[in-house]
Amino acid sequence: QSLDLQRPIDKRVYKGTQPTCHDFNQFTAGTETLALLVGFSAGQVQYLDLAKKDSAGRLFNEERLIDKSKVTLVKWLPDTERLFLASHASGHLYLYDSEQPCVATSPQYTLLTQGEGFRVFSCKSKTPRNPLLKWAVGSGPLNEFAFSPDGRSLACVSQDGVLRVFHFSSMLLQGMMRSYFGGLLCVCWSPDGRYVVTGGEDDLVTVWSFAEGRVVARGHGHKSWVNAVAFDPFTPTPCEDGGDGHGDNPGDPPSVTYRFGSAGQDTQFCLWDLTEDVLDPRPTPPRRVTAEPVPGLPRSLSRSNSLPQPGGGPQMSPRVPPALSSGRFATLTLRETPEKEHKRYHSLGNISRGGGGSEKPPGGGPGG
C-alpha cells in the first residue's frame, strides 16, 4: 500500500546510446538484491542492483575495447549469481563475471577450441579479468541465444541463417539447422527441452528436434520477418497427462502437445498448436476417392494451404479463432516466389539458400 503505482521504482535517461536489451537475475532476486543487466547500442553492458539503489552500478566494456558493436542480448547464466553472457552484432558472444573488472587495455585472446562455424577463445591475463571467454559464432550478427531448460545447452541464431546448439560447459557443437533463406532472428526451447523453434527473414517458424537433429515442421502464416517466438510453458505433454496424443477413440483429433506464439514485422501475432500427428506422423491408408480441386486455386495447391515443403517435415498453419475465416490465413501461404515478397518489404543482407534440412557435425550428437 505504500507503493506509488504512478511512479516507477527507477528511471534512467541515457545520452549518446540507447538501451537495446535487459535481464533480471531471477536466481538471486529478493528483498535484499535485484540484479539487472542492461545492454546498449554502443556495446557497453551496465550492471545495476535496484534493491540497493546503486545509482552508478558497474559498467562493462566502458571504453568499448572488447566490442564496439550493438549488444543484441544479455542473459544471466541459469542458477548463477555472477556469470552472464552478452551477444553482439559483431557475431561475438562474451562470458562475463560481474565481480571481475574490465581492464583499460584491449584484451588478448588464445584459441581454446573450434568447430564448424565457431571458435572459442580465452582471455590472456595473469589475473582474472573480463571477458572470461569469447565465442565467435557464424558470420554476421548473432541475433539471439537461449539456454535449454536444464541449462546445459545453448542455442544461437545468426544472420547467416544457421541455428547452432552447443553443449555449453564443454563448448562442443551438438547440432545445426539452416533457415529456408535469410537470417534467423529469434529462438526458444520447448519447456521439456526436446524441440527448438526459430523465426526469421524467411517469414517462417521452424520447429527443430534436438534429439533427432532434424526439422520436424515449418509454419506458414506471417507475411514478413518473424521477430519473436515463445512456447506456452503450461501446456501438458502426452507423457504428463497420461495420453498418447491421439484422443480416446481412433477417430478423435490429436490432442495438443505443445503451443507457442510468434510475432512478426507484419504486426501479426500467430498462435500455433504442435500436435503429436505432426511430430510423429502415422501413415494413412490410400484414399480411393479423388477430391475435387478447389475453384480458383492452382491445381497443385488445391488440396493444401501450405507452400511446397522446402526441407523435410510437415507443414503447420496457425490456430484460427472461430471469429476469423481460415481462408484469410490460407491465402498467406500460397506464394510461389517468397523471395519477391521479401524484396518489397526489406532488403536482405546475408541470404542462405540452404534447403532447410538439418546439418550435423561429425560426431556431434546430443550425447557428444
TrEMBL record:
Gene3D superfamilies: YVTN repeat-like/Quinoprotein amine dehydrogenase. WD repeats lie at residues 177-218. InterPro entries: WD40/YVTN_repeat-like_dom_sf, WD40_repeat_dom_sf, WD40_rpt, WD_repeat_creC_regulators. Keywords: Repeat, WD repeat. Residues 297-309 have a biased composition (Low complexity). Residues 236-255, 277-368 are annotated as: Disordered. It comes from the Eukaryota. Pfam families: WD40 (PF00400). This is DMWD protein. It comes from Lanius ludovicianus (Loggerhead shrike). The gene is Dmwd.
